[in-house]
Amino acid sequence: MMNADLDAVEAENQVELEEKTRLINQVLELQHTLEDLSARVDAVKEENLKLKSENQVLGQYIENLMSASSVFQTTDTKSKRK
User: Fold this and answer.
1) CA dist., res. 26 & res. 19, Å (int)
2) Distance (Å, rounded) from C-alpha 9 to C-alpha 16?
3) Is residue 30 part of a domain?
4) Any idea what job this protein has (predicted)?
5) Domain range for 54
6) DSSP labels for 16-44?
7) What is the pLDDT of residues 31-65, one digit of tens each?
8) Which of 21, 37, 49, 80 is the most exposed, fewest CB within 10 Å of its CB?
9) What is the pTM of this model?
């Protein structure tokens, strides 16, 4: 009877060990996923800052072109009609 009890305890310990191993592997996988996502967020933030800066430069360039062009200058329509 003692042998059967020992076998049952060993089987239970084996099941617990397998469950712990499964959980540890799942935690490690989730940690790697989190690291990957965090790196991706950082890369997207960096790209976003770069694009914002480029948009500001382009916006200023367009404003300069518009102010230098007579097509976009405001005109006095009353004096033109006479």
Assistant:
1) 10
2) 10
3) yes
4) Positive regulator of amino acid starvation-induced autophagy.
5) 23-61
6) HHHHHHHHHHHHHHHHHHHHHHHHHHHHH
7) 999 999 999 999 999 999 999 999 999 999 999 99
8) 80
9) 0.59
